[in-house]
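Cross-posting from the modeling subforum.

Setting up a comparison between two proteins and wanted a second pair of eyes on the formatting. Protein 1 (sequence, then C-alpha cells):
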Amino acid sequence: MALHAREQLANVPVIAHETAHMGQSFRSWPESYWSRPTYCPGWTAADAVAHLATGGDFYAQVITSGRNGEPKFAWGANSPAEAREARQAAVQKLLDGGPTALLAGFGQAGAKLQAVLESLQETDLAKVALHPRGRIPIGSWIGMRILELSAHDWDMRQPHETHAHLSPTAVPALLSAMPELQGQLLGLRVTEGLDGVYTLRAGDAAWGFTIQGKTVTPLQGAPRECDVGLSTDAESMILLTVGRADVTERLQSAALTITGNVEQGKRLCATLFRAY
C-alpha cells in the first residue's frame, strides 16, 4: 500500500538525521578508512561516499524540475546514458579531490537536497521526477533516498563489523516505504508466470500485491487469502529487497518463510530480492 503524502513528508526528517549521522562518522575516519573495501564489489568507502554525495545532488536537481512541471534529467543530460555519464564524472571529480572534497561534497549535496525536501508540499508529491529508469512520483523519492543512505552505510560497515545492522532510525521509515519501493521494482522486473495474490510480512507489518501478466497492483493492506505468503523480520525484508541478504540462506535458517505455493514464492523471491 502506497504511503499517503503526509506519511511521506513525515519521513523527510529521517533523511536529515541519517545524513548528519553519516557525515559525523565520515569526519572521524582515519585516512586508512577511505580505502577500505565495502560490501559492493570493487567499491572502496570513498567510492560509496562519492556515490551518496552525487546522489544528493541528483535528487535535488530532478525533484526541483519535476515539481516545476518540467521533469528533466540531472546535469543537463538528455538521456539516461548521458545522466549516468554525468554522474560518473561528478563522482570521479570528488574522488580526485580526496577526503576533503568527499566530505565537502557529501555535506553540501545533503544540505541542498534537504532544503528541497523540506520545501515540498503535499500537492507536489504526486508530480513526477525523471530517473534513468523512468518517471517516478516525487513522494517516492523520499523513501528511495533513505534506502540509498541506509544501504550504502551498511555496505561500508558490513565487511568490518561482526554483525552489521541497518540504522535503527532508518528501519521504521524504510519499512513504511517498502510496499511502494517493492511495487516499483516488481513493475520493472516482472515477467510471465507470476500471476497471483501475494502477502508480504515483516514483523508486525504486512502488505500485498496482485500480479497479472506484467501488471503489478498494490493492495490496500494484506489480503486475507493469497496464493503466496512471504514472512521475515523487518531488517531482513529491507536487506533482501536491496540484494544484501541471501535468499537461500534465509530460507534454510527459517529467517524467511514461504507459505502457499512454495515454488511460485521462490520465483517471486528471485524476481524481487536481488541487487537494487
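Protein 2 (same layout):
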Amino acid sequence: MAKTLRTSGDYTVKAGAGYNSGSGANTIRFDARYVRIPGDLTVDGTQTTLNSQTLTVEDQFIEVNRNNSTGGTEDSGIFFNQGTSNNQILYYDADQSEFVFGSTTHAATVSAITNITAGNVRIAEPSQSDHAATKNYVDVTAGVGFSLKVAGDDSTQISVGSANTLQFTGGSNINTAGSEPDTITISLDNDLTNITSITSDASNGDLTLVTNGTGDVVINDTLTFSAAASTPAASTVTKLYNKTAGGGGTGLYFINSNISSGTEGELISKKKATALAIALG
C-alpha cells in the first residue's frame, strides 16, 4: 500500500548524533529497488561515492570544481582509476593554462597536480586547419627524414635541434618562402654587397655566371687573371688565361679547339703589333 508523509515545513530525519555534530556515525538506508527524488538533490558532505555500474547523466554539461573562486588558479579534471597502476588523468593545468592527458601517482583527493607523466592521445587525421595534427600527418607534410645542414667556410656545421629556430638574416636582400610538401626557397631580391670571395666547393668544378635573357656579364673594375698552373685543354669554347708573356708581350692567352686546331695563342700588345707591322712592311 502506497503511503505519503506530508509536513507543512522542513522535515529532518537524524540517525544518532547526525552529520552536523561532527561525531555522528550512523547510517540511514533506503532499501528499495528504485529510489527517486523528484526535486533537486544537494549533498553537503565531503565525499560522494557511487557504487553503481553505470552512471547516466541527462545534463548537457558537467561542472567540476564548482566553488572555485580563486580566479583560475586551481587545477581541475577527471581521474581514471587504474587499480594497482598509476591513475590516468585528464585535467586543466591552471599554472600553464593548458589541458593535459597522462598518468599520475596522485589520488583524486589531491588539490593540485604536481606529478604527471604525459600520455599518448589517439586522434583522427585532420581534415581542416583547426584540427590537431597526427604524427603521420606531420611526417607526411614535413617530409620523413628531412634534415637541414648549414656549413660554414671552416668546415664547421650548424645543427638545428628540436624547438630551436634557424633564422636567415640580411635585411631586405633575403626573402624566404615555403611550399608543400617540403620546399623552402631563399631568394635574393637585390644586389649582393660586401662579397669578397665566391668559391666552388666541387673538385675541379666550374663556377658559372648566367645573365637573364640577353643581358651581359658586366665587370666595372679591374679584372685580374692569376697565372694558370698549366695550359687548359682546348674545347669548342674560348678560354682566356694568364701565363708568362711570350712573343705577344701580354701574357694573356686564349685557346679554342676550332681555332688553329686547338693551338693556344697569345694576345698581342699594341707595341708588339706596331713592331710587327713595321717589320713586315
